[in-house]
Amino acid sequence: MLTSLFIARFLRARGVRRVFGHPGSDTIDLIQAMAEEEIEFILTHHENTAAFMAAASGELTGVPGVVVVTKGPGVTNIASGLAAAHLDRRPIIVLSATVDREYLRTNPHQDVPLVALGGLMAKLSEELTSANAVELLPRAYRTAITPRPGSVYLPISPRQAVAPLGVPDAVAEQAIAAEVRPVPGETPDVSAAAALVTRAKRPLAVVGVGVTGADASADVVRGLEALGAPACVTLQAVGQVPCDHPLYIGMYGWHGTPVKRMIDTADLILTLGLDGWDIVTPYRATVPIVSLDSVDANDRTFQPVTAGLTGDLGKMVRALAERGRGPRGWGVAEAQACYREIRERELGVSAEHAEADGVPPQRVFSELRALTPRDTILTADAGSHKSMAAQAWPAYGPRSFIVSNGLSPMGFALGAAMGAKLAQPERTVVTVVGDGGFLMYAGELATWARLDLPMLQIVMVDHSLTQVKTQQERRGFGTAATSFRPVHVGDLVRSFGIEAVRAENTAAFRAAVVRGVAAGRPMVIETILDAREYRRVPTPT
Hints:
The termini are far apart. A six-stranded parallel sheet has the order 2-1-3-4-6-5, sandwiched between helices. The protein has a six-stranded parallel sheet with strand order 9-8-7-10-12-14, sandwiched between helices. The chain has a six-stranded parallel sheet with strand order 16-15-17-18-20-19, with helices on both faces. The relative contact order is 0.11. The longest helix is centred in the first third of the chain and has 15 residues, at about 45-60. The chain is about 40% helix and about 15% strand. It has three domains: about 5-175, Thiamin diphosphate (ThDP)-binding fold, Pyr/PP domains (Rossmann fold, 3-Layer(aba) Sandwich); about 190-340, Rossmann fold; about 350-535, 3-Layer(aba) Sandwich (Rossmann fold). The model has no long low-confidence stretch (mean pLDDT about 95). The protein has about 550 residues and is of the alpha/beta class.
C-alpha cells in the first residue's frame, strides 16, 4: 500500500470527509489519494483560512480538521493558523510537503526547518515517512484529540508520499480499522477539594475553555446547580454555561465590573478548565482556589491554588458536585443581578449616541440575537467587536460562540464560519468582522462564493483598527498607523457575486438581518458603526 493511500484511508475511517488547503505540485499525489477515498479538497486562497476552517470543524465535530499545504511558503503562511489552533485548543492535523532529503545538497529550494518550526506552535511535530506512517499517524491523531486538544504538524516529502509502506498491507489495514481514542484522564481523590467547597458560603466558579475540549459542559452545568455556585466564563468559554442559566453572571475580563465585584466577594473560587491565555486580567486571590483541569490545575492566572486536581474533568466535576454540597449564602438572586447590571448598564447605549452617527456596536449583537435562532453559531474576528461580543452576544450552549483568543489573529472569523457551516449545515451561522480584518482576507470571499454557503457576514465599518486606535487616543498619540481610507465594501463584495446591503442605522440593520437570515444564500451587511460607543462602554453610573 502506498503511503498516501494509507493516509487517506486512515483519515476516511476516522470520519474525515473533507480537507482544506492550498496545493503545490508536491502535494498532488496526496490530494489525489484523498479524492480516490472520496475526501473532498476545499481550496482556500490563503493557507491560514484553511486552518481556521479546519479548527472550527474540529471543535464542532470532535474529528480533527485536516489541512494540506505545500512546503516552504505554504508552511510559513499557515503559521498563524497552526499556532491559533494550538493555543485555542482546537484539534487539527496539518499535512505539508517537505523537501526530499536526498535533494537537499543539490536543490535546497524552499528548504526551511519545518519540523523545528512546527514544534514551536503545535502539540506534536514530526516528519511523516513510509517507514513510520503506520505508527505516527494514529499517534498524531490521538495527540490532536486528547485534552487539551490542539494542532499537530506532519510534513511528508512527495517521494515518501508515493513510496510503499514499510509494513505489510495487513498491518496497515489493522491500523486503519483500529479505534483511536483520546488518552484517558485519571480520576483523583477529590476529598480535600470537596471539604473546602463544602465549607464555603459564597463559592464562585470560573469556567474556562478546557471544558470545551473535555466535552464537559453538561457536567459543569449540573455541578454548578448541585453546588449552588454562581459562575462566570472566560472569553472562549462563552456558552459553556448558557447565558440564560440562573447562575450565570457574565464573562470575566471585559465590560465585567460586576463580575469582578462578585469574585472579590466570594469566599472560595472554583476554576474549571482554566487556560491562562484566555484570561485578560490575572487574579490574585485572598480566598482558597480549587482548580480542576485536564492538563494543568495550577494555572498561573488565578493564584494561589489551594487544591489543584488534574484528570478527567467531567468525572472530577461530578465527584465534587456529589461531595461538596453545603449551605450557601448566595445564589440565583445575586447571579441574575450581576448579569442584569452588565447588560443594562455596562453594555447600555450611551446618551451621547444619535442614530445619525451609525449603529452602536452593542446593538449589532442585541439585534442579531433577537433575530436569529437560539442555536445560531456566531464567529467573531479579532478587534473591539470581539470583546464586545463576548458579553453582548448571549450564547445558549457550548460550541455556539467561536473566536480565537489564544493567538487572536485578524481574519479568523470568515474561515471559522465557513468551517462551522460545512460541519453543521443545519445551523444558522453569522460572522462578524471589522473592516480591517475584512480587507486582510478579502480574497476568501471567492472561497465563500464558490462554496455558496448560506451565511450572514456583518462587516463593522469604522475605517480604523479601533482596539489599538482607542489606546493611542487615550495616551494622546497620533492615529495614522491605525486609520485607513474608506473602502466601498458593498462594491467589493458584489464583485465576487455575493449580495451586499448597507446599514447606516439600527432600523436599517434590523431589516437587513431579517432579509439575510431568510435569504438562504451568502450575504454581507456593510454596517456603519458609531465607533465612539466602544470608548463610552461601560456607561457611567
